Amino acid sequence: MLENIFTSTLSSTATELTLTNALITIVISIILGGLISLTYMYTNRSGFSQNFTLTMVLLPTIVAIIILLIGSNIARAFSLAGAFSIIRFRSAPGDPKDIAYVLFTMAAGLAVGTGYYGYAILFTIILCVMMIILNQLNFGSRKTTQRMLKVTIPENLSYEEAFQEVFQRFGVKHELKKIRTTELGSLYELIYTVTMQSSTDQKAFLDEIRCRNGNLDLSLTMSPSPINEY
Q1: If phi over 0 gives left and psi between -120 and 50 gives alpha, with beta otherwise, what is residue 115?
Q2: pLDDT band, residue 171 (cuts 50/70/90)
Q3: What is the pLDDT of residues 210-220, one digit of tens each?
């Protein structure tokens, strides 16, 4: 009985397209696409695109229908390949996680389109559960973050020792990357790359730096950018 569930329903009628198989394929594809889309929304609560979630619902059905139409007909396969070759996608590559979900939905559509309904359902459930577990465990997240700190100091302040005590107190690893003068040499601009713990109070840290540099310009960039040497 278990073997029958995981056997392709189209294995013996690969060249036939019946209404019953088509309806079953469409219904299962939509259900699996909806399940994958819901999993994506659950694991991306910080923000997601409605267009992308709707696409994930439809994509397995589209792929499954294409597989049904092709069947074992080589001529149809070449015709469809020629038709899709004229489509050009101009959107930039997205987040790797989004790309993984697109491949996930396509794989589900392929499995359903070839008649392996049992495997399609099994793989979809396993991967959805795995996505949720990895999200709950916060798998792969970094405990430290790297920032770029720009500090302006007066010329009479020693930049080598000015902020050492602040860095040590907050446990911030730092590296001085660049020094340049501004305001006709009356001010110095220091550029550090700093590595901070996720638990570091950034406001308190910046307040301490601000007190040391006399309330001159100060900025903390969220992600380090290449420093222009010229």
Answers
A1: left
A2: confident
A3: 888 888 888 88
Closest CA to 30 of 5, 63, 4, 67: 63
Q: Do residues 172 and 194 make contact, with C-beta atoms less than 8 angstroms apart? A: yes
Q: What is the CA radius of gyration of the chain?
A: 28
Q: What is the DSSP letter of 62?
A: H
* Cα 29 from Cα 59, distance rounded (Å): 8
DSSP-assigned letters across all residues of 4-46: HHTS-TTSS-TT---HHHHHHHHHHHHHHHHHHHHHHHHHTTT
Instruction: Give the whole-angstrom CA distance, residue 57 versus residue 126.
Output: 18
Three-state SS for 90-105 is CCCCCCHHHHHHHHHH
Tell me the per-residue pLDDT of 78-133, one tens digit each, with 9 for 90 and over: 666 665 665 555 555 567 888 889 899 999 999 998 888 999 999 999 999 999 99
At 212, list the tokens.
């040391």
- Token pair of 140, please? 């792969």
Sheet arrangement for strand 218-221: 173-182, 187-197, 144-154, 218-221
